[in-house]
Amino acid sequence: MDSPLWLSRVTDGMRFSMARQNLLDVLRDVQESENALSSGKRVQNLSDDPLSATRILDLQKTLSRTERYSTNIQTAKRRLGHADSVLGELNDILNRAREIWISQTGDPATAQTRANAAVEVAQLLDQALSLANRSYEGRYLFSGSKVHTQPFTTIGTYVLFQGGLEDWNVPIGPEEIFSSSVSAEEALGARSAEIRGRAQLTPAVNPAVRLSDLNGGRGVQPGRIIVSDGTVTKTVDLRGAVDLADVIDRLNASGIVNAALRPDRLGLRITSSTGTVTILDEEGSRTAADLGIAKSATGGTPLDGEALDPILRLATPLADLRSGAGLDKTGIVIKNGDTTVTVDLSEAETLGDLIGAINRSGAYVQAELNDDGTGINLVSLLNGAEFTVEEAGGETAEQLGLLLKPADLPLQRLNHGFGVNDKYGPDFTITLHDGTVLTVDVSGAQTLGEVVERINNASGNNGKLTARFGTGVSLELEDTTTGPNELAVEPVRESLAARHLGIEGSTGDSVLQGSQLNPAGIRVDGLFNALAVLRDALAANDQVMLQRVGPALDRAQDRLLAARADTGTRIGRLEMSEKMLEGEKIRFQEALGEERDIDLAEAVLEFQQRQLRLQAALGAVGAIARFSLLDFLR
Amino acid sequence: MAGIFSTLSVARSALLAQSAAIRTVGQNIANADTEGYTRQRVQFAAARPERLGRLSIGSGVEVSRIERVIDQHLEESLRRAATSLEDLSTRSKVLGRIESVFNELDEEGIGPALDRFFQAVNDWSVRPEDSTARRQVIASADALADAFNYAGKRLIEIRSSLNDEVETGVGEINRMASEIAQLNGQIVEAENGGRDLGTANDLRDRRDLLLRRLGELVDLKAIETSTGAVNIMVNGQWLVFGKHTQQLETYQTAEDGIRITKVRMAESGAAFAPESGKFGALLAGRDSIVPGFMQDLDKFANTIIGEINRVHSTGEGLRRFSDLTGTVAVSSPTAPLSELQLPLAVSDGRFFFTVKNESTGRIDRYDIAVNLTGSQSPMSLQDLAAAINAAVADDHPEIEASVTNDFRFRIRSTESALTFGFEEDTTGVLAALGLNTLFTGAKASDMSVNDLVRSDPALLAAGQGDGPGDNRNALAILALRDKPLIEQATLEDWWHGKLGALGVQQAQAKELAENQQRIVDHLTNQREALSGVNIDEEAINLITYQRAFQGAARLLAVVDSLVATLLDAV
Question: How buried is residue B488: exposed, middle or buried, by Cβ count under 10 Å (0-12/13-18/19+)?
Answer without folding.
Answer: exposed
